[in-house]
Write the structure tokens for this entry.
Amino acid sequence: MLEDTIAAITTAYGEAAVGIVRISGPQAAAIAKRVLRNRMQEIVSIEKWASHTLHKAEVWDAVRKEKLDEVLVAVMWGPRSYTGEDVIELQGHGGRLVIQEVLQVVLQAGARLAEPGEFTRRAFINGRLDLAQAEAVIELIRARSEGARRLALQQLQGQITQLIRELKHKLIGVTAGMEAVLDFPEEGLETSNQEVEQLTQVIRDLEQIILQARTGRTIREGIRVVIIGKPNVGKSSLWNTLIGEDRAIVTEMAGTTRDVMEEEVIVKGIPIRLVDTAGIRETMDLVERIGVEKARDMLRRGQVVIVVLDAGEGLGNEDQKVLELVSGLPLLLVVNKSDLEVSRINESDLQCYFPGQQVIWASMKEKWGIEEIKTAILHKVLGNIEPGGEEGMISSIRHEDALRRCLTACQGALKALQREMPSECVLVDIYEALECLGEITGETVSEQVLDRIFSEFCIGK
């Protein structure tokens, strides 16, 4: 595969100021030379250009003998390039037709159309990135929030790699002493408490990393928040206020909201998916009844459930039914209409219905308590981790799975050590743990896994 020279459009599809065609591989210079001319229509001596320089040229279709575009040519000779190979980028005008025609003449000149993620895969194969860093490229592109961007950038800069390297160093330290016992039996060497202590520390490190993995995924993927309550307590008003738009219809008539509405907002760099639902009550209206069933279904998918109560009406039978629905779920209580002179809900009532739950007194009319609600949502899921405190967190399910298997192997090795089993038995588990860590950085990963990872990339990356 690396013997081929590949090319693709690396900029987004559509009209733009600039469109870029990237060429990478051993024949990049020769292919570019076949399509480029100077302003005198002479062949350019691209092989003489210094690396990491820009040059003005024209792209010509040799068959039609026609100029297609004027471009800036970026030259990056390997191994000091993104892929580790010779890379030429043709930076032209970003029209849909012109950039496609530039790509076509490059392909006609001998390049092959790149597969999804092939540029980054070559960077991995050539040692420019390890697999964790390569995965961070697509995560950085897909990042929808500041938190997700920070996580991806840290991973791209090698923080996960360094974390794995430190774990491997500790495990190799355990194997060194045990391998000496096996290699030099005549010396009468024995395993010591040092191996037990080292392995115990690795297990603690793994447990801490895995514990934070859920938080890392939340920062990347966001928090789903379901707003629920009986009819006409202000659920849609709260939803409108949180998203900053009057999207949901709000009236004095109970049962106005009949369907589920969703919208995403960013709070302190974290995506929050807000779900407005129909009021929970028994109803003969077919459409409203379907909406109520949808609301019940959404409850099971929420990471935080906001129960909205009406300070003007107090707690009644319908609130009791809502309580039964949300029992055991991560709750946040919002008492709306707290601006009324007389509140029919007090703290003792709430502790009776919702013991131990956080209560926020708010008013959608006066916009009270909104920031407090946002902060409480984040705290409910992230705990005391502040935005920007994501250092060293993993967010990939693949990485977490490999670390869990590594943890299981390490726990098996520790038990074997404590039971004074033969060193060979202990080393089998430790070697398995090292292999699991190697899967994260790509040292021991299969071609099938690589195919799956890079197939998720766009063609130009």
In short: The longest strand covers residues 66-76. The chain has three domains: 6-129, 135-216+396-442, 227-382. Residues 193 and 417 are 9 Å apart (CA to CA). Residues 227-382 form a domain with the Rossmann fold fold (CATH 3.40.50.300).
